[in-house]
Amino acid sequence: MRIVHLFAALMTFGALLLGEWPMRISLPGKTSFGECFSTTRASARHCGIENKGSTMHELLFIIAATTVIYSLISKRIQGSIVTPPMVFTLIGVLTAFVAGDFLNEESSHEVLEFVAELTLVIVLFIDASRIKIPLLIKDYQIPTRLLGVGLPLTVVFGTVAAKLIFPQLSFWEAALLSAVLAPTDAALGQAVVSSPAVPEKIRQSLNVESGLNDGIVLPLVILCASLAGAGEPSDVGGLMIYWAKQVALGPLVGVVVGWFGGRWLERAKKADWLSPSFEKLSGVALALLAWSGALLIDGNGFMAAFVAGMAISCHSDCIGDAMRDFGEAEAQWLTLVTFLLFGATSVLPVLENFEVMFVVYAILSLTVIRMVPVAISLVGLGFHRPTFWFVGWFGPRGLATLLFALTVVSKFEVLHGQLIFNVASVTVVLSTVLHGLSAVPGTKAYSKALKRTCNDQSLERQLASAFPLKFRMFDD
Predict the structure, then answer these.
(1) Which of these, 254, 255, 329, lies nearest to 294 by C-alpha position?
(2) What span, in angstroms and rounded, lies between the C-alpha atoms of 465 and 458?
(3) Distance of alpha carbon 285 from its chain centroid, rounded?
(4) CA 383 – CA 453 distance, rounded (Å)
(5) pLDDT score for 296
(6) pLDDT number for residue 169
(7) Closest CA to 402 of 180, 205, 195
(8) Are 308 and 128 in contact (CB under 8 A)?
């Protein structure tokens, strides 16, 4: 009951800020907070009271209040089936429901797109900085197969399913929808990549897959969106050159920024030139440097940020640990802000145009369309059946899918772009709930299954204890 009271207090304070409470409850004939808020807002516009900054102030209040109140209960619900993205998305939806047209403005998608893009860059960099390069080089088979076999098959399966379920889509629009939903987001299943009960090799592979697949898929999204908007492949050669530049130049910039940046920081630290505060800030700065530098030369900024983080991990742990101490908190908070904005700007409009087939495709995307290609890609590596199920299921859809869907709507003239965005939004909502609810119990079930099916000499059991844990829980 305390949790309920805390969030009731949050919504009450939010309502007080969003309008004059006594005025709204005294208005005759008004039965909903949204209607009252709309009336109050319209009156403010008529009287010349409202200014352009009011919406932003209200939004900042909701974000700050949600963060503070969730902080009060964060340890209490840590490790439960309730995850922070679930809570923040729900608060965003409630905000939109209470406030009516609070964020239904043309700029709302632009704000969400910018925050999601910035968040993804920092998250990719921090996640990559945790990866142990020696282990990745030694055990490259899983991420290589997931990205080289599983990812293309996922796009193919998703394209076929999209064309069958949504016959109004053209081939390129079906491929676009599949590509938008192909990248995974490890943040939604943080309990998976941070639990010592999961073998290190599996955690590393899921993290690498999540970090690289969005960068690999982004050029494909741009290609499909361009062809879907053009109606015919008028400039396939130019698009293929652009795709090649994205894939080649992005990682190159990441290597340069990460390697030399980490080297200089390490030397500055040894020379006692580097203050502790700027040592922490340097991580976010390097992530943004790699991202923006790659964009300046038509490279993929997301791949650059991820590769830069991997390059940083080659240097001393003291440099990487200091960056993570600051960057992890910033990345986690920005991730939660993104989900709150998503709930506030996108969920209710999608529900207004809801179709059952959205859910059908979303469920297929989270299960068959991913799990079958993953199983095919892992054949022959000697893993036990629980690993096939576990890796196949834990492919959440989150930041990258949101960002790509927003890009399709805002930057390309795709005939059924809104349908693609709606399906992607429904998939993200389902993934947030289903993967959040199943992360902790799924990890425990997988650990128990490994104990039953694996002996001490098995690959999973050996790797579970051979390497120290470097991941942190979302709520830590």
Answers:
(1) 254
(2) 12
(3) 20
(4) 10
(5) 92
(6) 94
(7) 180
(8) yes
Rounded distance between C-alpha atoms, residue 73 and residue 10, angstroms: 13
Tokens for 460, please give them. Answer: 């999973």
- Joined together, the tokens standing for residue 47 give 């009287």
Mean pLDDT of 358-377: 95
**Region of poorest pLDDT, from 99-108, 150-159, 195-204, 461-470:** 461-470
Sign of the Cα torsion 389, 391, 397, 401 reads negative
CATH among 2.60.40.1670, 3.40.50.1450, 1.20.1070.10, 1.20.1530.20 for 105-466: 1.20.1530.20
Handedness of CA 145, 148, 153, 159 (dihedral sign): positive
Q: 380: alpha, beta or left, given left = phi > 0 and alpha = psi -120 to 50?
A: left
Please tell me the least confidently modeled range out of 71-80, 236-245, 334-343.
Answer: 236-245
Distance CA 73, CA 121 (A): 28
Q: Are 223 and 414 in contact (CB under 8 A)?
A: no
Residue 1 has pLDDT above 80, yes or no: no
Please answer whether residues 384 and 460 qualify as being in contact, where contact means their C-beta atoms are separated by less than 8 angstroms.
yes
CATH 1.20.1530.20 residue ranges of the chain are: 105-466
The string of pLDDT tens digits covering residues 343-361 is 888 888 888 888 999 999 9
- With H, G, I as helix, E, B as strand and everything else as coil, classify residue 81: coil
Give 105's pLDDT tier (boundaries 50, 70, 90). low
